[in-house]
Amino acid sequence: MRNVWIICRKELGSYFVSPIAYLLLTMFALIFGFFFWSALTGFVMMGMESQMRGQMFPMNLNEEIVRPLLSNVSVIGLFFIPMITMRLFAEEKRTGTIELLATSPVRDLEIILGKWLAAVILYACLLLFTALNFIFLFRYGNPDWKPLAIGYLGLLLQAGGLLAIGTFISTLTRNQIIAGAATFGVCLLLWVLEWPSAFETATWARVLAYMSVITHFESFSKGVLNTKDAIFYLTVIFVGLFLTSRSMESLRWRS
Amino acid sequence: MITVKDLTKRYARTVAVDQISFAVEKGQIVGFLGPNGAGKTTTMRMLTCFLSPSSGTATVAGFDVLEQPLEVKRRIGYLPETPPLYPEMETAEYLTFVGKLKGLSGSDLNKRVDFACERCAISDVKKKILGKLSKGYRQRVGLAQAIIHNPEVLILDEPTAGLDPKQINETRDLIRGLAGDHTIILSTHILPEVEQTCQQVIIINKGKLVAIDSVPNLQARARGAESVLVEVAGRNGNLDLPAVQRKLEQVRGVGRVEYKTSHANRSVFEVESQKGFVRGDLARAVVEAGWDLNELRPAAMSLEEIFLQLTGNEAPADKQEIAAKGAD
User: What's the gap in Å between the CA of A253 and the closest CA on chain B?
Assistant: First the structure.
């Protein structure tokens, strides 16, 4: 456990010493800020319209703003995850520092967990910026905080799974760009798998939809903690990390 | 300290290391010699548990590299061919990280970082970013990284590659200085390095072990069994070769005489002798028989030639000559 933390600290160090972390944080904050602004403006306009007409519709901050925004974040995240994971192992393989890690008295699993944990923490930092926006909702309105918290839990679980897959892909190459592009492709695929279910109800479409990471986020965005969906994400995390460890093991045989 | 038995590394199409066996005693410096691509790095990577052997066994300090890799890694300091540095880190920060990875902590860690910095003469760049260090400093930080946890065994892959002559000397001194407390294996394709730093030499070629011997023994082999090249010329133009050979063989102390080449009326013979002082007798014998003695020089082999011979590459004639003169 100590070793996991040592590796994690080092990874966080390289994220925050280089411009990567700041670039990601800035871009994410800008994009989410824009989404938040448009969602909020729409909400306010709707409120004013209904007042002018003299008919008061029931309006709910959680339903109208928090839920769609969380769904947005889960999709924006897909674009950021490859940029977080692409360097994790590819960079070490390119510069040869992987030889240092692999010949130190540390287990492969500790290296993998440390790197994955650092990626999750960086993603959590991105989410922190979204939280800054939500604070305004609490200042000027009274949304329910529990669905929001569950939504964040879902985002973290979903990202954890995709980050694990990205970590795995990063072990396959020494080229960061290839790792990033491949991870992006996989993330995108795991998103669009649910699309056929919109026009098709056959079993294959439902199976595909079940494999999509977005499908399982729906319950979280509603503020419902669904065990099945949580277990799905935990499974993705496990499979991703397991593949990573197999891949690292195979490095010892292939060179 | 290190025992290697029938160690083999096979890839899909090639055999990188083929049934190598050797043993290294505690406290020794062993030179791992071979041309590029001979399998030096692969062997070292197997010893450090970076690669797994296809077959055969290797033990370090009594621990098998496959069975107990963590115990092996705890006892090994490894400097790969390119120092494994994180370019964005500062020197001291990097050494602290490596120290923690190797299991050090607290005041012990700080002490070891300072010690390694001092030992490798990098105290003046402690606060510098690794990516901006010169090649010589990078190599020394790499070395500091390898000794940080005071390992019993040091494995250094071409520790002097790419350094300038002054740095090479400093690095060799450093390695010799480390020898007392550590068992060291270093790989190189530079021969003087082996002569200067190592007690024992392991020569491998194309994945196979071709020689394992102590440096004095190899040097003795290099100085040769006092072999002398004699160039004789006939005074009146033609030379009776069998007669010269017989004459040379009759000199006291001469073991074997071999005819080498002829240019015009000059002929070269290689004369092997048991004792070192036959040269005067040879000269007298040739002159008394009425021939001219053009040249008389030792035909000793240099370590370089032995190396080339063992690794199966024929040395070009002129190079042989230069080498022979160098060994004189």
Answer: 6
